[in-house]
């Protein structure tokens, strides 16, 4: 081929290359370009709020944008969920999710204004233990004492609960232990703690992190922790399993999600950043020393499997005890 012909062909190829449009950019390439919003369905200062603020700061640094935390408590997390779903599905609004929003609300509320499928799980963050406690002046020195009293006089031992999660956990406990307790609903943990100390109620299931200050002050007495193994902050307190109720387990997890309509490349970018944050030594140290919790750091798909499993387990309890929204 003559040099002049070759030159013309090369020139034509270069011109065509210049005229061809560039491949479209991924939806996640320029994300985020403004601050992120983390929505918490609880009041400021709660353990879950503290965890979310710590994670939000790490994610913001990783993605190069500020991350603000907005507390939207009330209506059994429904207000916060609607805040997420009413916002544009662009990944800029991220919801802290828990069993309340994803598992229990759909089981007990037949007028729920959302479907849990509307939320795409991103990452499971932590799993916290619960502890069965009584007042410092209570006659119950051990969980064995509780079992004996409840079997001797059914419905006389009272168990306070301040959420559907703990109500169902208490129902499962009595079912597996073969006892009948007197379940008393409360609106919040603070009043439960006050009534425990005053002897107005016998027992309660509380977050370990929330109960620790009163346990250390000697104002409450721990009877058993609800996880498979003993809690590192309560090494002398046996598990419910050790105390005679085989296979019992109750824990509280939190994680993060976005609207299921969020473009998948953006959801994947957020998921990767969250998992990176949850895997840092800074977060693991925070979870152990401040939240007293186990770090999960599980991706959205694995979190979805966990949620589905819990729906089956709690669904059986809801049917057995006919639990519904009060």
Automatic annotation (TrEMBL):
Q: Does the keyword Signal apply?
A: yes
Q: Where is the signal peptide?
A: 1-27
User: Which keywords belong to this entry?
Assistant: Signal
A Pfam family per the record: TctC
Sequence similarity: Belongs to the UPF0065 (bug) family.
Its name, as the record gives it, is ABC transporter substrate-binding protein
Q: What is the lineage of its organism?
A: Bacteria, Pseudomonadati, Pseudomonadota, Betaproteobacteria, Burkholderiales
């Amino acid at each position: 081929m003559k040099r002049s012909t070759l030159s013309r062909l090369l020139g034509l190829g270069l011109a065509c290359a210049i005229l061809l449009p560039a491949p479209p950019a991924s939806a996640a390439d320029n994300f985020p370009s403004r601050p992120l919003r983390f929505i918490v369905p609880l009041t400021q200062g709660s353990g879950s709020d503290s965890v979310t603020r710590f994670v939000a700061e790490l994610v913001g640094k990783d993605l190069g944008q500020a991350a603000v935390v907005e507390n939207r408590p009330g209506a059994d997390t429904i207000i916060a969920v609607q805040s997420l779903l009413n916002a544009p599905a662009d990944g800029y609004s991220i919801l802290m999710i828990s069993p309340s929003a994803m598992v229990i609300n759909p089981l007990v509320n037949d007028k729920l204004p959302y479907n849990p499928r509307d939320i795409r799980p991103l990452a499971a963050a932590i799993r916290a233990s619960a502890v069965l406690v009584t007042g410092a002046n209570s006659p119950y020195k051990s969980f064995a004492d509780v079992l004996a009293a409840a079997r001797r006089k059914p419905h006389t031992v009272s168990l306070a609960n301040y959420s559907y999660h703990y109500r169902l956990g208490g129902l499962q406990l009595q079912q597996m232990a073969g006892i009948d307790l007197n379940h008393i609903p409360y609106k919040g943990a603070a009043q439960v703690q006050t009534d425990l100390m005053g002897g107005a109620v016998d027992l309660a299931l509380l977050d370990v992190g929330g109960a620790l200050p009163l346990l250390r002050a000697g104002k409450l007495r721990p009877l058993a922790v609800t996880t498979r193994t003993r809690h590192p902050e309560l090494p002398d307190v046996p598990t419910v399993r050790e105390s005679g109720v085989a296979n019992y387990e109750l824990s509280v997890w939190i994680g993060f999600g976005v609207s299921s309509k969020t473009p998948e490349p953006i959801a994947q970018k957020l998921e990767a950043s969250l998992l990176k944050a949850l895997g840092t030594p800074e977060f693991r140290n925070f979870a152990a020393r401040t939240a007293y919790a186990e770090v999960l750091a599980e991706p959205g798909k694995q979190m979805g499997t966990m949620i589905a499993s819990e729906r089956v387990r709690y669904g059986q309890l809801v049917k057995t005890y006919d639990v519904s929204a009060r």
